[in-house]
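Example (one chain per record):
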Amino acid sequence: MAKQCAICLSDYTSKTRKKITCQYCSAEACVSCIQTHILSLNAEPACYECKREWNTEFMNDTFGVTFRTKTLRIHRRKMLKEREQSILPSVQVFVSMKRRISEIKRALEEMQPLYTTYSRNYNKLYSLRNINREIIVPLRVKMEKGALSTEEKSSLEVAEENFKKYTLEFEMYRAQVYMPYALKYHRLSSEYTRNLYRYRTGSTEDVKKERREFIMRCPATECRGFLSTAYTCGTCSQKTCSQCREIIIDDGPDHVCKPESVESTKTIKMETQPCPKCAAPIFKIDGCDQMWCTNGDCNTAFSWTTGQIVTGRVHNPHYYEWIRRTGGGAAAREIADIPCGGIPGFPQFSQPFYSKYTLITSKTRYIMFEIHRHVVEIEQTLPSYPQQPPALMNKEINVRYLMNDVNEDEWVKSLEHSYTKFQRRREIGQILHTLVTATADILRNVHMRMMESMYQHDLPLWVESEIIPTLETLRTYTNETFQKFGKTNRCATPQLSARWQLLAARTLYKKDATFSPSFKEGQTNTVVEH
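Predicted structure:
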């Protein structure tokens, strides 16, 4: 066993040079060197040897409170700030979009009272015309049959006169007043809906094209926006000279460039870097070494210093823990990779249970079917626990920052809060993925053995004495992991009921609600109301 740090070659001590061993590999170093390594990363804490990211539990068990809550937190906030600064130009299109949405909304609110009045008058004239039409139709039928009385004939003449009058008024009002205003109102309403959809999803081709337009920061004081290829700011709408990159006052044609500004602009143009994937020129505003190309569908991370594309993997620490606890030797698999065909389909899985040769009891069959059903449901929820931050995760936060709705400190705090929420969901997803992966292995094993020889006399005993207890151990481990994670991170976590239904925290803490203690055939609810 090494007595010296592999990095600084200092002897290990009990505190300042305490030995730290990676939770995944055998890499060792003193706590001081590991902390220095962590603070040099532009990513979450990870092993210097295997590069795997360390989870919250390992960090809490390994490093002191002061380092985690102060030093590391300051570093993380700086990292998040720099990371978001590097992608702010791609958010500029949403600033322009939000401004347009606000403008349309105000216009619609101003138009609404008059539009309501015009609609009411339009409907009134339409109703008056139809009332007279309803009087005319039956009277004309009677007139054709020669059964029209003198009084009815007089009523018909009055109705026809009124019908002509209201029809003329209706058509004139419709053509001259209502339709022009209604068309304008509905066009604005459609534009509002379309822009709101584009703003919320950010996934249309129009948005992708617009993202490429914004190339550099706006030079205007107090503006955080970016210039388009037309050198117009998407936030403050001011224009900038392309030669000297100074604000053009009032679109004046008499703008004269300063020679020193022109030379400075030429120097800046020389300081762009091409994307290693699509060759689009990238301008580094400020921030970390890791850059992000937003050109079309490129979405490539690369190092500003080396020009190399940055790649990485997200690993699941909970699967390693489950393997250690059960004594297995299989390696952990990547998140969202349910191997070997995953969970057997229910028709295939259930077939041997219903065979006339099987000795499996109905109770055992019911338990296995319920576990299968709920694990499939959990598997379908895994995409809602992303393992990488979504591209537009902080869109709303960044838009508010670019529009000067929040100051820089509030912006960074919001980024930190958003990333904390993402980290929690990611780790909950890792726990669920571990559950699904391990259960899939067990269910496939059961299915394969039953298909090979479903008439074995020891098969029911094997399922009841080995498989079901193993599954119960897995369920208990999952709940313990959730509880430990919730306690460590001070957050609510879900739990697996006795029938393997995933219950949200709000269900667990519901007043006068308890877990159902065991499987009961025909039972459909896992929460029993008193």
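Caption: The chain is about 55% helix and 5% strand.
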